[in-house]
Amino acid sequence: MSKVRILFLGTPEFAVCSLQRLIDDEHFEIAAVLTQPDRPAGRNMKLTPSPVKLLAQRHGLQVFSPESVNSESFCAEILKLKAESAAVVAFGQILKQNFLDLFPLGCVNVHASVLPRLRGAAPIQRAIINDDRESGVSLQIIVKKLDAGDVLGLRRQPITDDMNASDLHDQLKTLGADLLHVEYMDYLRGNIMGHSQNESEVSFAPKIAKAEAHIDWRKSAREIFCLVRGLTMGPIAYTQRDGKNLKIHKVQIRPEKHGRSPGEIIDIGGDSFTVACGSESIEVLELQPESKAKMRASEYLRGYPIKARELLQ
User: Does the CA dihedral 11-16-20-21 come out positive or negative?
Assistant: First the structure.
C-alpha cells in the first residue's frame, strides 16, 4: 500500500507525541513540518526552537517556521511539496482557505476536547476550571469556522480531583496521537466519514487572561480548588500578600464551616496554612513568592511567617 504524503503543523509539547507517532507510522510520508518561529525563553530570553522543531530536526525532516502560513509566497512554496493532506496539532496560527485549498485530501486537526464542547484556545485549562468530570480529544476536518468541522473520531478521558491541567495535558497528548494513527488513515483511505457537530451543544474555551488567575476568595473552596488545578500550565493562580503577588500551586479543600471573612488566614500548621473562602476553606500546600522558586508551604512558613487572621487579597 502506498504511503500518504502529508504536512505536519504543530508547535508545543502537546504536538510532539503526535509527530513522533506519524514518523513511526509506515503509512505516512512527512513532506515537511511547520511550526512557530523560535521565541525568546528562559531568564536570558534566548531564542529557543519549539519542541516540535527539535523533534523534526532530530529526524532530519524539512522544517518551516513562517510568521504566517497564509501568505501567497509561502503557499506557493508549500504547493511545491505536493502533500496530499495536512495534520494540525496545536500549531498556533489560524489557517485561511487559501492554505487549506493546497491539500487534495483536506486538513485535519486534533483538538483537546470532546467537540462541540470547548472550542477555542484553552480547552484543557477550561475543562478543569469548569469542574468538568470528563475531557477528551477530537479529530476534526478543518473548516473556516473555528473548531466547527465534522468529527472523524474522539477519545474520552475522565477528570478526577487528583488531576491538574498538566496531568490532563499528558493524558490527552497520547490519545491525540492515537487518533492520527487510526482514524486519520481510515479517513484518508475513505473508510470513515465525519459526523457534524451539534451546534446547540457548543461551548467555548477562550485563552486564559492573566486577570483570571487572581484568586477571588469570595468564591467557594471548590471553585478556587478548580482554578488552581486548571492553571498549572500558566498563568499560575495567585493572591496578594503585603502588596506582592503570591502564586498558589497546590491546594486542597477543607470542608468545615468557619464564619470568617474570605481571604482570612484561619489556621496555620507546620506543613500548610488554611484560608477562608466564600464557603468552606482552602488549605495551601505549595506556593511561590515573587522572584522565588516554587516551594512547599512548610518552607514558606519558615521564611515568611504568617499570623492568624491575616488577610490575603
Answer: negative
